[in-house]
Amino acid sequence: MEPVGILLLIVAFFLIIVLFRSIKIVPQQWNYIIERLGRYRRTLEPGPRLLVPFVDSVRAKVDLRERVVNFPPQPVITADNLGVQIDTVLYYIITQPTAAVYNIDDYLAGVEQLTTTTLRNVVGSLDLEKTLTSREEINARLAAELDKATDKWGLKVTRVELRSIEPPLSIRDAMEKQMRAERDRRAAILNAEGTKRSSILMAEGEQQSAVLRAKGERDAAVLRADGEAKAIQTVFAAIHKAKPTDRLLTYQYLQTLPTIAQGTANKVWVVPAELTKALGGIGNAFGGADKSGPSEEEEVEVDTSALELDDSALQALEAAQQAAREVQDIGEGKDRGELPPAPA
């Protein structure tokens, strides 16, 4: 091969290398830090860019997207001298690429150490219960402190999250026992409230049932009394319309007397004073002014005190009924003009 051809090949290869080193394509959301002869020259934005070959060089490639860093669990002592393990997650973005490259050697290591110290300061002022229940407050305080400290590094901490808080095993056992006791207490309260509500409902139901039964009995009694009153009024109206005589009333009275003496336990039968008056009324009704009977102005002197007849109560009742029938027969004889036989 001729020397001229070899020279041309070398020149072509050199030009390709120069062209390759002169053109840089920067991706979206990236910045390239360019140095010229070891000194910061400029920052390349996304897109195709030209460099001076063998003079300009890329110092660093900076990702401008939001990044997430998960730090390992850190031992932290709370205000009540209890050690806990806290796992944190940090979200940040790079706002000044040149500051992130030139102001700190390794900004990720710096952020990790700064997060650890800030977390210990924040949690160290809180007790364990407050630490477990105040994650939002801790996250806000950490984000504010880290954002203030990392501003000179060209970083902006958007948020910090406490992913887990692990207390000691003995504390976890005590917390579980407390939680079970609290749940048992709530269950007992709910059970008691349910029993109370059930008793109240049962009592109210019994009360309403008793009230309804009482109202029903009252209405039934009123209806029965109303019916009996109407029946009495009907009977009274019928009797008044029929215009009964004294003989009929006296006879009905004598027919009612056997009912008084009914019953196997009756040992003493009291002869009422109205019995002699009834007999006298029958005589007056049928005999007029007969001398054998007393006059209307005279009073029949009969001992109306209680007569102890013992076992002869029914016999006395039958005698009274027989006397009433005889008086009736005498009255009927007088109406026909017949006179009763003279007494011996």
From TrEMBL:
GO terms for cellular component: plasma membrane; side of membrane. SMART domains: PHB (SM00244). Gene3D superfamilies: Band 7 domain (3.30.479.30). Residues 285-305, 320-344 are annotated as: Disordered. Belongs to the band 7/mec-2 family. This is Regulator of protease activity HflC, stomatin/prohibitin superfamily. Keywords: Hydrolase, Membrane, Protease, Transmembrane, Transmembrane helix. GO terms for molecular function: peptidase activity. It is a single-pass membrane protein. PROSITE patterns: BAND_7. Residues 326-338 have a biased composition (Basic and acidic residues). It is found in: Membrane. Pfam families: Band_7. InterPro entries: Band7/mec-2_domain, Band_7, Band_7/SPFH_dom_sf, Band_7/stomatin-like_CS, Stomatin_HflK_fam. Residues 21-179 form the Band domain. The keyword ATP-binding does not apply. The chain crosses the membrane at residues 6-23. One of its GO terms (biological process) is proteolysis.
